[in-house]
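Entry
Fold in token form

___
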Amino acid sequence: MFGQRAVDPAPGTHYRSERVSAVNGRYFFSTREGTLEGPYFSRGDAEREIGAYIRRMIKARELLDSRSF
């Protein structure tokens, strides 16, 4: 997909991939920031935590933006 996110310096090609992966029976999800979050006991737990992670990142960004001068 060719496009530009708000945080990207220039348009580029972004490849979609499966966000949730399983390692030794535990589930993890990868982030745009390059981290691997987990482990979780089920795929459903990992998928639910993706939403929580996104909400935390949005809240953190809003907090940083409110402190900017």
In short: The first helix runs from residue 43 to 67.
